[in-house]
Prior knowledge:
Blueprint: H1 8-36, E1 39-46, E2 49-56, E3 61-62, E4 67-68, E5 72-73, H2 79-89, E6 95-98, E7 101-107, E8 113-114, H3 116-131, E9 134-139, H4 144-153, E10 175-179, H5 187-205, H6 212-228, E11 235-243, E12 246-253, E13 262-263, H7 266-271, H8 277-285, E14 290-291, H9 301-310, E15 315-322, E16 324-327, E17 335-336, E18 344-353, H10 355-364
Parallel strand pairs: 4-7, 5-8, 7-9
Antiparallel strand pairs: 1-2, 3-6, 6-7, 10-11, 11-12, 12-18, 13-14, 15-16, 15-18, 16-17
Amino acid sequence: MKKYFTTSEYKRRNAQQSLSISKRNALTKKKRKLRRKGLVRVHTITRGYEQQVFRGNKKINQRKPAALAPSDLRLIENTVGCLSFFRDIRSDDYLSRKGNFRYVIMSLKDVTQIDYGTISILTAINDEFNSRKIFLKSILPVSESCRQFMVESGYLNNLFDESGKPFPKSVVSELIFFEKGCGVLSEGDNRKISSLIKDVVYHLTGVNEYSLAVKTVILEICGNSIEWSGTVSRQWLLGVKYETGRVIFTVTDVGRGILDTLYRKFSKKFFETFRSADFILKGAFDKKYGSTTQESNRNKGLPAVKANFENGKIGKLKVLTNNVILHFDSEHLSLTLDRGSPRFKGTFYQWEMNMDCIKKLTDEL
């Protein structure tokens, strides 16, 4: 009787199995080699056949160029130039990577003029980056006056230099972040605002006392920023700058912006197709529109802000959002930016208070 392992059928099957094992072992060795090189396998289907494509999973090191700031970095006087710079900073075109470490380098080297509005927005952008685990590295201005202005503003408190080292902390900073939460200030936030208001009143009047009227005005504007925003970090920034005879306030939120959250009925949308964006934003301050949520308690903050300005409780009110900047104190300067111009993703308020504003607030009590 002929043994089975000597038959031609057995020899053919054994040869096929040996070839299959040999191919599998060769593939395993290749996979190990590729794995040592940092490559992984990806399956693709081509014309009904499964193919194995290998790609790298090594950490990416990619250094992008620094975002260059214009020499005039004053938000109010050079709005388009500043917005273009802010857009660059927040663009992926300037987002560098070193492994899992992501960072953006901004160069303020050529800056010769800067204002508090720019400081506020840059601080808010840096906070947004922190929430996304992106580091903002800064090259400070060559101009000594600009460097000193940035130091005194407290802007450098949370920033890193080009080498990735943190700048020294400022002793006094009037740039304060507040959590949005559920729309109610926490006990800690209330203490911070109360202390800030005492400093404001003392600076303007020389009297060290608390003013509920001043707090009400500030919270109306801050609450409005919370109402219309959609920022990732869920924070808004209150900035205060003390100057002789006046105090400059800023409220910054790098969320969606007012125009992106407006709700307009279809009929109004149709008739206002030919209206400018600044005209529509002014209508929001006159309570012509609601927000996208259509909640009954919405849109009370905008008219209140305008009323405070018209009553003389605040002065030199300016609002920047999306592609519009409104100058309530100089309406001829209000404008809608041209198509293709940079937009501001968020909302920014700036206003001033002086001794006359304090008197008008006090007289109402």
